[in-house]
Amino acid sequence: MSIFNKVMLIYGGISAEREISIITSNEISKALVRLGYEVIEIDANLDLSNHIAEYKPDVIFNGLHGTWGEDGEVQKILEQNNIPYTHSGILASQLAMDKYKSAELFIENNFNYPETNLVNINNINEQVFPKYPFVIKPRCEGSSVGVGIIRNHDEKKRYLINNAYRNEVLVQEFIDGQEINVAVIGNEKTGSIEIDPKNEFYDYESKYFDNGKTKHIIPPRINKKQLEEVEHLALKAHKILGCKGVSRTEFILEKKSKQFYILELNTQPGMTQTSLVPEIAKYKGIEFDELINWILDDAGTNR
Fold first, then answer.
1. Which domains, from first to last, does the chain contain?
2. Which pLDDT tens digit goes with each residue over 105-120?
3. Residue 37: which of 297, 303, 300, 269 has the closest Cα?
4. What is the distance between the alpha carbons of residues 74 and 19, in angstroms, rounded to a whole number?
5. CB-CB contact of 168 with 139 (8 Å)
6. Nearest Cα to 82, choosing from 61, 62, 52, 55?
7. Beta strand pairing status for 59-62 and 134-138?
């Protein structure tokens, strides 16, 4: 039996991923109710501390996605309130959300990482990254929000018009190959899934709204040695950033070199029944409710 009884599930939030947080938290809530917890659902905003003071929960289940919810800001509020919460702490959340800072750490620790330039979106020109195709992604976003594969001048022009409100972006070489996602549960258990998206890459639409057209392949179509390697790399990345609870790390197995390139690590993976981490967990014999219960039991302060 869990040491917690009254669970505050924080969802929604104020990021571009609000819609996904609502969807994923609906599934989390149903699981928590099935498990017998008293659940208080809070559409989280800057008044979060007031809600905590009012309801006095035993623990916070963080069902937020994107900026504010998983970039260390909410974690600061929860630490200030000295209340146990799920997923990673302040520093790990900051590092994982900041793709440039996490990339620096990955490169320092001998991961293969795409050649990358950090630029202000107003200063992107042909000299910055002249070779097509390349990738543009926001420095700090999740769920592939704002990510584009740029194959020609017109696509670049369109991206810049649609994303003119952004500030810093990463301009990255395009790595062609299989996409492998690896889940880490705790500090030792891992599992992998291959993504064969209906779109050019596993973008926002493919992740949440493609009605099953994206193929999720378990186990991935790679050999045993490659599987062991990519799962070792994911666990290493999880530990380098100081993550807690669950994480999901994205890799590309480059076609020609057969080398794994790390793209990013997600500290708050989606938690619907068909999200990648629950799918991987199920393949490993961990049912959805069991996974949610594990994440809750793993909650703590000073994360």
1. 6-86 (3.40.50.20), 95-112+177-292 (3.30.470.20), 116-173 (3.30.1490.20)
2. 999 999 999 999 999 9
3. 297
4. 18
5. yes
6. 52
7. unpaired
